[in-house]
Amino acid sequence: MDTILIATQDSxxxxxxxRILSPDDHIQIAxxxxxxxxxxxxxxxxxxxxxxxxxxxxxxxxxxxTDPKTLVQELKDLRPLMAVIVIAGNDDVRxxxxxxxxxxxxxxxxxxxxxxxRLVIDEISRERRRQxxxxxxxxxxxxxxxxxxxxxxxxxxxxxxxxVRSVGPTKTTVxxxxxxxxxKSFTAKLIHRQSNRKNGPFISVHCGxxxxxxxxxxxxxxxxxxxxxxxxxxxxxxxxASGGTIFLDEIGTISKSAQVKLLTVLQxxxxxxxxGEQTLTANVRVIAASNADLKQMCxxxxxxxxxxxxxxxxxxxxxxxxxxxxxxxxxxxxFLNKFNQFNAKDIQGIHPAVMQALLQYDWPGxxxxxxxxxxxxxxxxxxxxxxxxxxxxxxxxxxxxxTEIAIDxxxxxxxxxxxxxxxxxxxxxxxxxxxxxxxxxxxxSEAGVGTRQLNKLMHKYKLDKxxxx
Length: 469
What we know:
Elements: E1 3-7, H1 11-20, E2 26-30, H2 33-42, E3 47-51, H3 52-57, H4 68-78, E4 83-89, H5 93-101, E5 106-110, H6 114-149, H7 155-167, E6 174-177, H8 184-194, E7 202-206, H9 215-220, H10 237-240, E8 245-249, H11 256-268, E9 270-271, E10 280-281, E11 285-290, H12 294-299, H13 305-311, E12 314-317, H14 328-341, E13 349-350, H15 352-360, H16 366-380, E14 385-386, H17 393-397, H18 413-435, H19 440-447, H20 451-460
Parallel strand pairs: 1-2, 1-3, 3-4, 4-5, 6-11, 6-12, 7-8, 8-11, 13-14
Antiparallel strand pairs: 9-10
Helix pairs in contact: 11-13, 14-16, 18-19, 19-20
């Protein structure tokens, strides 16, 4: 822990807790509701030890709030990661437990028992370690996944990733354009992780999923009593994302009044909560996305032109999956790795007939449709590769048959047979290398030949393993 706030009017309690804490901890003392509130707002407190009597005195400071759940939530709204430890006398243990049930981290009894305090502190430390380890594992899995997904054989997509690398380290507002399922959310995360805000929060807001009447409250927060149902102050996403990135998906769906507020944020870097008078500063990088034509919406009067120009500083258009079919084998490999991480199965390959069908399909739902289709097949599959039986029959109705080999009847049967076998052999090798991402050992093993023989065949048919990676 770094900063500990001890909120009590009992000097013996303060002294007892001080003795138990580490000399490296930064300790703050508060003995009144006002002082507690100001200290929490001023210092990034990791842990609050607070007398039950002072906790119950806080409503006078916090707009006359009464119930424990609201009290604890008000504290957590300011410091989401702060542990709240209630100090209660033996006669007040039941009330302290009520606070625990409503969000407090734990409680200790007074007079202070050093062993009890150490036990609580150790428990908080263990939980924080677990959360850090979990965050690390999630980060590693995300990065492992992204390494596969950001690989591309598509020239169009290579330009997209070049743009991501260029704009990532800047503060520039980015507008991602493209149809649903093309990977706009993933691209936004990639930009965030390329930026100097990568250690800050990444807050994603699906604007189309929020009712029009609530979008302003969701983005900018609201004060208690600002509208019916506003029982307490709520922080908006722009406050929560402070120091990081906010991703506004389906930006074209927000109301006109929300467009005005968003324009103010982009122009001046300031905003106000709904029903509030205090002007707040937005320390946040904005990435917006739309599957609608915002320029056309401006012409039709559905979207503010000045906001469009503020958002359209650095537009990036994500291509359809249909326009980058050469990447389908890469996606299949990445999604299979992802499914294998979270399931007991170990499916590594895909039947050639399935791959051919995937390459022929139009993919109106783009990458999201591909992932969903593969996940369904993965669940149904009982072998070590994805077979046609695990996919909908409609997928194969759209697949075109393999192009017939041209036959020149002016040549001898032996010459035609030799050319036909060579073409089949070349196609077979391309399919095997594509499925194994250009890996020689895996491709040779699947083909039932040695690596030396495979290299000779690749040289014969001018196949470079690099184009399959």
